[in-house]
Design a protein that fits this description.
By secondary structure, this protein is an alpha/beta fold. It has helices at residues 9-17, 39-55, 73-85, 97-106, 149-152, 180-188, 194-199, 218-223, and strands at residues 2-6, 23-29, 33-34, 61-67, 90-93, 111-114, 116-125, 128-133, 165-166, 169-170. The chain has two domains: 2-119, Rossmann fold (3-Layer(aba) Sandwich); 136-205, no CATH class. The chain binds iron/sulfur cluster (SF4) (2 copies).
Length: 224
């Protein structure tokens, strides 16, 4: 899931003011955005903005809809086109940055604004969302007991721990979070051959795999 955090209402209204927006389509996303940013959240956002604008003595109208996945070109185009044809020329997207960019690409004639800050790719635990993967392009989890050193080690070290861990906690963040490499050691130490894997030197990652923009259509691009 992609974890997002709502922008402050003032920041959203200031961005909408740059195009003097009065009739806005607030679009939720039913995809992997978390916490949920669906129809209910889109309606709530529209109502909060309406209250704010009325208080400031400004005109404001909104429609709230949702989209199965804003990041999917054909789904987003099919869902939103009827609304754009009805004259909505400003969109406030409740999706992650991918959804916002997709809408801006599909509807170049429309001003698209983000209502969220996109934080990370993560999982949901009882205590909240936690970053789990940084999309490094060369997954190491098979050698690290299922703990990701790229996303979970503050320095993304390939060999650890560094000298900054104290009693299993990382110096970055003032010893609040577990050291990823101590967690990796705990996972591997009792596995047959696990310590050999743990002690093995891992060369630096190939950062070219993580250099943007990235595509999964390399063949088509190369053949052009
Ligand atoms: S090793 Fe790379 S691909 Fe695997 S979970 Fe970590 S960041 Fe993601
Ligand atoms: S203490 Fe552990 S998690 Fe923190 S930077 Fe060093 S190896 Fe990474």
């Amino acid at each position: 899931m992609i974890v997002t955090r709502e922008k402050p209402l003032d920041e959203i209204s200031q961005s909408l003011d740059t195009v003097n927006a009065k009739k806005i389509l607030v679009v939720g996303c039913d995809g992997c955005c978390q916490p949920p940013r669906s129809l209910k959240e889109a309606k709530t956002m529209g109502m909060m903005l309406e209250l704010k604008y009325r208080k400031d003595g400004k005109d404001f109208e909104f429609e709230a809809i949702t989209c199965l996945r804003q990041c999917d070109e054909s789904i987003a185009a099919t869902t939103l086109r009827p609304w754009i044809e009805k004259g909505h020329n400003v969109i406030l997207s409740m999706a992650c940055g991918i959804g916002v960019q997709m809408l801006a690409e599909i509807f170049p004639e429309v001003a698209v604004f983000p209502a969220q800050n996109t934080l990370f790719m993560g999982g949901k635990k009882i205590e909240g969302h936690v970053e789990k993967c940084a999309a490094c392009g060369d997954c190491l989890l098979g050698y690290t007991g299922g703990v990701c050193p790229v996303a979970n080690c503050a320095k993304s070290l390939m060999n650890g721990p560094c000298g900054g861990q104290v009693e299993g906690k990382c110096e970055v963040g003032n010893y609040k979070h577990p050291c990823a490499w101590i967690e990796i050691w705990k996972k591997l130490k009792d596995r047959p051959g696990g310590l050999d894997i743990y002690r093995r030197y891992r060369p630096p990652r190939d950062y070219r795999l993580q250099t943007g923009p990235r595509f999964d259509i390399e063949e088509e691009i190369t053949n052009e």
